[in-house]
């Protein structure tokens, strides 16, 4: 007589296999969602409508002689003495090496802006920043071929 030992099936083995499959499916879904989110975010950064790339940095400095101008104060007794250098693109400066730089046009564009300011505006840091921005726009409009990228104050004195 042979006795057969009853085989006991362990349901925990079946549960472990199911848990591993569910875990793997969940992990795969998470990885797909994370990858899609990363792809969409990197694509959104590269779209042209989002942010313009920064303009090329100034490679050379164009020195200008100092300016002394009457300011637009009502009393007419205030003046500004300012030294200005311009940061320009290297290619633009080299193109102009053979011919004279357009210094007269640059100075004219700067003077047109400087004489519109009041002394109170120029004494505040925000006023100086606004002046730099307006000078940059004015010079870029007057002489676009020069490739002006920055305006640097090398001297700044408001006399009241």
Describe the protein.
This protein is an alpha+beta fold. It has two domains: 11-52; 60-159, Tetrahydropterin Synthase, Chain A, CATH 3.30.479.30. It has five helices and four strands; from the N terminus they run H-E-E-E-H-H-H-H-E. Strands 1, 2, 3 and 4 form a four-stranded antiparallel beta sheet that branches. Helix 3 runs antiparallel to helix 5 (125-142). The radius of gyration is 34 Å and the shape is elongated. The model has no long low-confidence stretch (mean pLDDT 80).
Shape: elongated
Main sheet summary: 4 strands, antiparallel
Residue share in β-strands = 15-25%
Report how far the terminal alpha carbons are from each other: 123 Å
As for the CATH topology of the largest domain, it is Tetrahydropterin Synthase, Chain A
Mean pLDDT: 80
Q: Tally the helices: what do you get? A: 5
Radius of gyration: 34 Å
Tag the structure with descriptive keywords.
160 residues, alpha+beta, Tetrahydropterin Synthase, Chain A, elongated, 4 strands
What does the secondary structure layout of this molecule look like, with pairings?
Elements lengths: L10 H36 L13 E4 L3 E4 L8 E10 L1 H6 L7 H12 L4 H5 L1 H18 L5 E12 L1
Antiparallel strand pairs: 1-3, 2-3, 3-4
Quick gist of this model?
By secondary structure, the chain is of the alpha+beta class. The chain has 2 domains: 11-52; 60-159, Tetrahydropterin Synthase, Chain A.
């Amino acid at each position: 007589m042979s006795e057969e030992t009853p085989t006991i099936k362990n349901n925990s083995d079946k549960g472990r296999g199911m848990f591993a499959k569910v875990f793997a499916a969940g992990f795969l879904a998470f990885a797909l969602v994370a990858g899609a989110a990363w792809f969409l975010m990197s694509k959104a950064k590269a779209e042209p409508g989002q942010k313009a790339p920064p303009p090329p940095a100034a490679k050379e400095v164009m020195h200008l002689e100092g300016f002394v101008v009457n300011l637009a104060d009502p009393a007419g007794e205030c003046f500004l003495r300012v030294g200005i250098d311009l940061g320009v693109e290297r290619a633009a400066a080299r193109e102009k090496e053979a011919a004279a730089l357009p210094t007269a046009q640059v100075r004219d564009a700067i003077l047109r802006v400087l004489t519109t300011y009041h002394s109170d505006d120029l004494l505040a840091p925000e006023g100086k920043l606004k002046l730099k921005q307006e000078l940059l726009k004015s010079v870029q409009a007057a002489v676009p071929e020069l490739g002006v990228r920055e305006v640097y104050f090398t001297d700044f004195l408001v006399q009241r």
